[in-house]
Amino acid sequence: MATTIGRAHGKVALVTGASSGIGEATARALLNAGYRVFGTSRKATDGAILDGIEMVRCDVTSDASVASATQWVMTQSGRIDLLVNNAGMGIQGAAEESSIAVVHALYDTNVYGVVRMTNAVLPVMRKQGSGRIINLGSILGLIPSPFGAHYAATKHALEGYSESLDHEVRVFGIRVVLIEPAMIKSGFEQSMAAPDRPLSVYENGRANAAQWVSDGMKVADVPATVGKTVVQAAGAARPHARYTSGKTAGRLALLRRFAPASVFEKGLRKDMRLP
Asked: GO molecular function, one example (predicted)?
């Protein structure tokens, strides 16, 4: 079903958060599939080449930075055929333990950052009469995540945003797709922010959630798995609204869809050692 598009066709991809983890693996997969790839990082030097990936400085929480990065890519390539919104961050802790300031910062990257980048490239894609936007969501956009409520909420937000936007822009030849991985060995879990106002009443639950993540990482998929899924979604003539990525994500999506709610909830609480 999926077909990749070679550089002979002049296809240009822009991948946010491409300096490491899923973003880097995705950029490499697209490069190998024949795209000219621009990857963003907050610390990048415009024009630096990282193993064939052309790096661009961009902070997705800044309107000015997003506009500057998009313009730089357009100056270099003249078009943007594919945007992969990958940049993101996480918080691990009970919902009550994070202040509004911390939650706002999370949304500023995970949700508003996606909106900023998308708004920046849509005029380009409309003018071209074609384009594809791929948003990196999470299987946690489908299932609950105790002690990860705010992160899960940002991914639930991307579910609604992506599918709604897809209906709005199809008339311009643009499609919007969501990728839903589960746990990925990308180092993301090690960089998750801690709650800024921890409460002793949640210590045991928070510790159990951290152990659940640690156990899951032992059998997690590698970032290249997501890169392969992105290439598939990018090249599909008729893309699905969403793609799970990896065996765990696919299994969880099926359980969420077909298992009785009470059974799913009981299994989740057991896995996370919740009373």
From this structure: oxidoreductase activity
